[in-house]
Amino acid sequence: MRKCILALSIVFSVAGMVQAQDSTVSKPSSKKTKPPKKDWSKVTIGDRANDHFMIQAGYDGWLSTPDSIQTSGFSRHLNIYVMLDKPFKTDPRWSVGLGVGIGSSNIFFDKTLIDLKGAISTTQVTFQNASAINHYDKYKLTTVWAEVPIELRHISNPLNSDGSFKWSIGAKVGTMLSGYTKGKDLQNATGQSLYGDKYIAKEKDRKYLNNLRLAPTARIGFGNFTVYGAYQITTLFREGQGPEVRPYSIGLCLSGL
Hints:
This protein has one domain (49-256). The longest helix has 23 residues, at 2-24. Strand 9 and strand 10 (225-231) form a beta hairpin. The protein has 1 helix and 11 strands; from the N terminus they run αβββββββββββ. Helices cover 9% and strands 49% of the residues. The protein is mostly beta strands. The strands form 2 sheets. It has an 8-stranded antiparallel beta barrel with strand order 1-2-3-6-7-9-10-11. The chain has a two-stranded antiparallel ribbon with strand order 4-5.
């Protein structure tokens, strides 16, 4: 009996020692360690390619247009800018872009004549419905601008601008270089051509047009391609000399270099 009790005491003592040893073994942590956050201020980017050259093309429209003005077709624009990109030293994912370039807008109309020279009214521009008189098969108002765009830019990876997500907000200010109407193929009220489809007439005058353009802008996209929009907060025509039209643009931007 004493032997049995002694044997059991030895077994329990050994078991207790083993359990005590197991309890001292540290268990691996279930928490995953996060990779260290990248310090962008220490990244050297050199002369990166980040939208130093931009070509924009797309659709143009007019907001707040009176019902008497009938636009038609695919009104469009083409803008070309050369930009200087200045990255932030503390974080080169952010930068400021400043540039200069040329912008143009072409708004098409349906059976409409625009009196830019003031033959009908000397106080304001006149849009004449020409469906019952001689009119042009194709007719547009073109404006050309010298512009200075500025952008606050963000790019996901400044080391690979051409393969990264990017977006920007900004504005552009411009001064008008030219404004004119252009008609092609003069037709009578029944639609018969009077001088053939090669006939072209231009009327150039800026006295009713606002020479200043200010428009907020925004872009978003990937690599060399972004979609963008712009809204002109200044009116196209001078105050009191035409409808309070505010143009807008939506299009695709090709950038690089």
